[in-house]
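Handoff note, outgoing to incoming analyst
You'll be picking up this chain. Sequence as last confirmed:
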Amino acid sequence: MYSERPAQLRGAALWQVTAGSPGPAGAMQGRSGPTDDGPTASSASADPMPLAAHEATPTLAATGSASASESASAELVLPDACMDIVWTGGRLVVAGPDTRAHSVEMRAGEVAAGLRLAPGTAPALLGVVAHELRDQRVPLDEVWSARVSRGVAEAVERAAPGGPGAVATAIEGVVLALSPRQQGVSGQMMLTMSARGAEVSEIARETGWSERQLRRHSHELFGYGLATLRRVLRLQAAVRLAGTETSLAAVAGGAGYSDQAHLARDVRALTGTTPTALFAGRMAAG
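Most recent structure output, in case you need it:
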């Protein structure tokens, strides 16, 4: 089952997934996929700003919990330019930005909970550039300091008897205390302009960066270059439109693809399947 509710963080929503039904899920499997040429992955750690409660910021996307039903299930999770902090199997893990869809398997009785971080916001919170976590699942204590990781683990342990929803809320509370007070204006501009299909040269003019600087900042904030970011955001737009449009041509046009063939190529590259298969059961009735 999939459901949402508002969270403490502005612009956030709690998601809940039950095994056997579609919806967002925080998987732990390692994976790989195509990216722009750029920095390669490596391990890193940093101590984020000290715990100190302050006003919620608009930099975080959603918190959520997932609980499996009696039967196991597998879902296709699409790249969305987000990063996640996930609790599963008694472990806390950071899920880096995806460049390709991957299948998430939930065993019978398995539970998970976590926080989805909005595109470009995780590096400031975690103290690590996004490309170092691209297509990876890394233990939280390898990213954050032992002190902060231990604080999250203790909060999760206290909340665990209340179920995955309580765990998700506990993780949210810690991240709310750690989250930066302001979102980077240039990063938000990169995201907004990429979502509407702006070219790199146009974004460079607006941000005041050279194209080389822009590329570096894109890898640091989002985990990959702006070409991949555009493709990922366009795919997400297509998924949203599939619920309201009655034809693939309309989805392609509304999401910013040049034509239906362009949609098909991108969907195949990012998900390994076809638009017809991906949107099966989603398209509005004609």
